[in-house]
Amino acid sequence: MSAVPNPIGKDLLGLEELTADQIRLILDTAEPFKEISERQIKKVPTLRGMTIVNLFFEASTRTRVSFEFAEKRLSADTVNVAASGSSVSKGETLVDTARNLESMKIDMVVIRHGASGAASFLARRIESNVINAGDGTHEHPTQGLLDLLTLRDRFGTLEGRRVCICGDVLHSRVARSNLWGLRKLGAQVAVCGPRSLMPNAIDDMGVQVFTRIEEAIEWAEALNILRLQLERMQAGYIPSLREYNRVFGVTRERIERAPRDIVIMHPGPMNRGVEIDSDVADGEHSVILDQVTNGVAIRMAVLYLLAGGRPELAESAKSGTGR
């Protein structure tokens, strides 16, 4: 008898290739996992016996720790490999590294890499499940999913909601995952930022483009504010950080002039006083900490589904009976 195909596929490489129903499935599966993080004992035996390797070729704290929490709360065995401390620093290729790890009988690889397409490249060459934790300027699917879950928690549905992605869209893999996910779930999407920080094809992506932050705030029900990725920039993208804040910064004064309450999001880490002011980031309409909490639940859901967990048993999985 042939195996039942996984409802979200072998790997999670990006939201562009998922259907709206697959995205909703992941969001729905994450809901019961939220409760585990509220317990005194934050662990269930759902993935006991599975080995997951976190293969990070770029520095990361937030994403790596979130995946670690998710893996350990599902009782998987976790191995962390950083490029700076591995054979990669001695010239070993990505495929050699992965094949060596797979020969140790691992089940999944979570990979973050500076090259767009690295996760897909790896997934085609190994049998283990591959989860993209961010590849170049391509996608960051679990961040996109946790942003969708956070917005759905606040609004109930994303259908028809107006969400503006603000800031360094050019270099942002988060922006691309959000753009794909939001549009597939029926949201209206806009972007706002200097033209120098917009992709060349932005006008063909089915989004509205604002060149003034005041216009974006007047239009939007939610702002997802991106940091300036200074580490990816050469000189000339913006005149200065001070000038960027003056023209595009999300400040309390600008938010107070909005015609409605606006949900404030940020994938982190934040450049306070540049793209967002502290009193906005910490204000009553901010859901930034909710995003962090939802990130663990989303990653638990993705791990669970890729491991073959049945969506209808996610509720029992949180008590350790479903797999």
Structural commentary:
This protein is of the alpha/beta class. It folds into two domains: 20-139 and 295-317, Rossmann fold; 141-290, Rossmann fold (3-Layer(aba) Sandwich). It is built from twelve helices and nine strands. The chain has helices spanning 20-33, 62-73, 94-102, 118-123, 141-155, 173-184, 213-219, 241-248, 252-256, 278-281, 288-306, 314-317, and strands at 51-56, 77-82, 108-113, 129-135, 162-166, 188-192, 208-210, 222-225, 263-265. The strands form two sheets. Strands 7-6-5-8-9 form a five-stranded parallel beta sheet, sandwiched between helices. β3, α4 (118-123) and β4 form a beta-alpha-beta unit. The protein is globular and about 55 Å long. The mean pLDDT is 90.
- Count of runs of 4 or more consecutive helical residues: 12
Order of helices and strands: HEHEHEHEHEHEEHEHHEHHH
**Helix/strand structural class:** alpha/beta
- What is the CATH C-level name of the largest domain? Alpha Beta
Q: Strand order across the biggest sheet?
A: 7-6-5-8-9
Rg on CA atoms, Å: 20 Å
What composes the largest sheet?
A: 5 strands, parallel
Gap between N and C termini, in Å? Answer: 20 Å
CATH fold topology of the largest domain: Rossmann fold
What is the overall shape? globular
CATH-defined architecture of the largest domain: 3-Layer(aba) Sandwich
How many distinct beta strands? 9
Concise description?
This protein is α/β, with parallel strands linked by helices and 323 residues long. The protein has twelve helices and nine strands. 36% of the residues lie in helices and 14% in strands.
